[in-house]
Amino acid sequence: MSDLTFVFVHGLSGWGSYDVAYRRMPYWGMRGGDLMAFLREKGFSCHAASVAPTGSAWDRACELYAQIAGTRTDYGKAHSGTFRHPRFGRDFLGCPLIPAWNDDTRLVLLGHSFGGATVRMFSELLANGDPDERAAAPDGDLSPLFAGGFGSRIRAVVTLASPLNGTTAYDMFADPDFDPRGVKVSLRSRALARMMSAGTKPRPDGRDPRDYADHDMHIDNALAMNRRLAPLPGVFYFSVPCSFTQEEPDGTHTPRKGIEPLFTMRSRQIGAYTGRTAGGFAVDATWRENDGLVNTVSASFPLGAPWKPLDRERIGPGVWNVFPILRGDHMYLQGGLLHRHDIRGFYLDLLTLIAGLR
Question: Does 250 reside within a domain?
Fold first, then answer.
């Protein structure tokens, strides 16, 4: 049906096809069954990557490249030295994610949640490389990822419920003028939220704390990343923001009935927060609408980037085409954790749309 290769990248604490957990419950499809298998049956070449569950966008991008290219993971001489961790990671020689990696490759990169930052960083490095890495390593010791020049191999980037500008789920805890604990929720919701938070915290291994996903998802840091990750001229960009809250008379947002129980407390806290980041960014009431973990406004498009509402008849490269807000919580597009959702039709329509671009 298509000469495109679709690579799906999971979010924070997620898993992919290289992980044992994927055989027990596929991240893509979850309770609704393996989405990759369904889409392959429909004629699409689809693959689920496995990247560090709590790693930074940079480290995850390096791992994604190694899987696609079928090579050893190289985090970069300069990066690994700065952030105090080994330069090399897992070797995917002999077990690449996709059968071939060459100039005929046309990748469509889909990232859920923090997977959105991952595929955007990967695209930037693939196209433009990194000057610090080129300066730190001679040509014979430089990963092709950091050399750049492979932008033509990327057809499209799709972000799904992604914190493109960060999420107040992190920033509100650093704001001295806001107390998240003051937002009233049930004891059960608090217990479930603690369970979720425990699964998203990185295990300290001596590296610089800036080299983790939770650092990248603070608003100031996400906005700094956006200044580097400008849209590539020949690449099509799509975003799918989600929302599962309702506005109350006092202007706060509360979760709708049927939200995943794990998200109830965080959704209420995000829905009550306005304030200012450490860097001075003003978080106003437009940031209260959320999907349980990510602010809907943040999932729409990177601030400062060109964008427009999705018009299926007029889709051009180099600009963010923003889907209408999808009424679902943060795991809706994955098929749901406790609540089963059939998302096969959504993805079939999305991939068919992209495959038809000219």
Answer: no
For residue 290, the one-letter residue type is: N
Q: Can you tell me the distance from the alpha carbon of 131 to that of 77, in angstroms, rounded to the nearest whole number?
A: 12
Question: Which residues, including other chains, have CB under 8 Å from residue 8's CB and lie 6 or more apart?
Answer: 16, 28, 35, 36, 46, 47, 48, 49, 110, 111, 112, 115
Pairing of strands 242-243, 326-327: parallel
Domain assignment present for residue 217? The answer is: yes
CA distances, 96 to each of 27, 48, 100, 110, 117 (Å):
19, 12, 8, 18, 22
Provide mean pLDDT across the span 166-171. 96
Q: Which range marks the domain in which residue 79 is found?
A: 5-166+212-245+293-355
Nearest to 160, CA basis, from 72, 273, 238, 266:
238
Q: Rounded to whole angstroms, how far apart are CA atoms 158 and 171?
A: 25
pTM (two decimals): 0.95
Q: If you compute the radius of gyration of the chain from its CA atoms, what whole number of angstroms results? A: 20
**Is the distance from CB of 133 to CB of 104 less than 8 angstroms?**
no
User: What pLDDT digit, counting tens, does each position of 310-328 carry?
Assistant: 999 999 999 999 999 999 9
Provide the strand spans (E) within the chain: 5-9, 45-48, 72-74, 88-91, 107-112, 154-160, 236-240, 242-243, 245-247, 253-255, 275-276, 282-283, 307-309, 320-322, 326-327
For strands 236-240 and 154-160, give the pairing: parallel
10 Å CB burial of residue 348 (0-12, 13-18, 19+) is: middle
Q: What are the residues whose beta carbons fall under 8 Å from the beta carbon of 221, sequence distance 6 or more?
A: 166, 215
Residue 182 resides in a domain: no
The first and second tokens of residue 267, run together, are 């959704």
Q: How many CA atoms lie within 13 A of 16 on its CB side?
A: 24
Domain presence at residue 187:
no
CATH number at residue 308: 3.40.50.1820
Q: Hunting for tokens 């939220």 — which residue is that?
A: 193
Read off the pLDDT of residues 238-292 as tens digits, 9 standing for 90 and up: 999 999 999 999 999 999 999 999 899 999 999 999 999 999 999 999 999 999 9
Domain count, the chain: 1
